[in-house]
Amino acid sequence: MALGLRCFRLAHPAFCNSLAALTRPVSEVTLKTMSGKQNDHRQYMAYPALPVRHFATKKAKAKGKGQSQTRVNINTTLVEDIINLEELDEEMKSVMEALKDNFNKTLNIRTSPGSLDHITVVTADGKLALNQIGQISMKSPQLILVNMSSFPECTAAAIKAIRESGMNLNPEVEGMLIRVPIPKVTREHREMLVKLAKQNTNKAKDSLRKIRTNAMNKLKKSKDKTSEDTLRLIEKQISQMADDTVAELDRHLAVKTKELLG
């Protein structure tokens, strides 16, 4: 009797696990051989196999996210009767060039006479560049002079334009001579120039957005005489051109920001 109970105790765990294993699919059960033998018979323990689910890692997700979509490269001559993509490309490039020109002429750590050349002055004859109505010169590293003797009637308008140029300038008038003290290069001045650079970049993006919208509207007018697939490809090409230009604008902003902050 005692021997029988002892054998039952030894066999009971294996029996229960084996019975549980029989109720699961074979794919969910693993058998493990126990060390040692009893009565020349191997003992097996049944363990449920844990289901393995493969999740995408953060690295894999980031890799997938960064992959660029297939680019379109339409032969412009094949669609020129629908839209002039070369002309559109020139329009977008002109936005980029205008921003670069603005950065070079007005957003500099050291204010120079050339920085004032293209400040727009509103006169009775229309909008004119400051260097068209005044003679700009550098009296000292700390002072720029604008001689308004040729157009004295525009002196007040010139002072207003200089003050509102966003260059942190505070001009003073002395007869027909405008004195423009050059501000000291402070951290606040640098940060203000960066802020202006961002504002100008956003304006450039607005101009680019208008160019893209006009192109898309023009494309819609060809809806009746052009296949949907062709229109979709042209739309993708236009969006791709706009995205490339935006990326270029952001790149120039990053370079200018680094230059201004030092």
Shape: elongated
Individual helix count: 8
Provide the succession of SSEs. HEEHHHEEHEEHEEHH
Strand content: 5-15%
**Helix content percent band:** 40-55%
Give the overall average pLDDT: 78
Residue ranges: pLDDT <50 for 5 or more in a row?
18-56
| Major sheet details | 4 strands, antiparallel
- List how many beta strands DSSP finds: 8
Briefly note the structural class of the backbone.
alpha+beta
Oligomer: single chain
Cα radius of gyration in angstroms: 38 Å
- Walk across the major sheet and give the strand order: 5-6-8-7
Measured between the Cα atoms of the first and last residue, the distance is 93 Å
List keywords for this structure.
8 helices, alpha+beta, 8 strands, four-stranded antiparallel sheet, two-stranded antiparallel ribbon, 262 residues
Description of the structure:
It is a single chain. This protein is an alpha+beta fold and 262 residues long. The protein contains 8 helices and 8 strands. It has helices at residues 2-22, 58-66, 85-106, 113-116, 130-133, 155-163, 187-220, 228-261, and strands at residues 29-33, 44-48, 120-123, 126-129, 135-140, 143-147, 172-174, 177-181. It has a 4-stranded antiparallel β-sheet with strand order 5-6-8-7. A hairpin with a 2-residue loop joins β3 (120-123) and β4 (126-129). α3 packs antiparallel against α7 (187-220) and α3 packs parallel to α8. The protein is elongated.
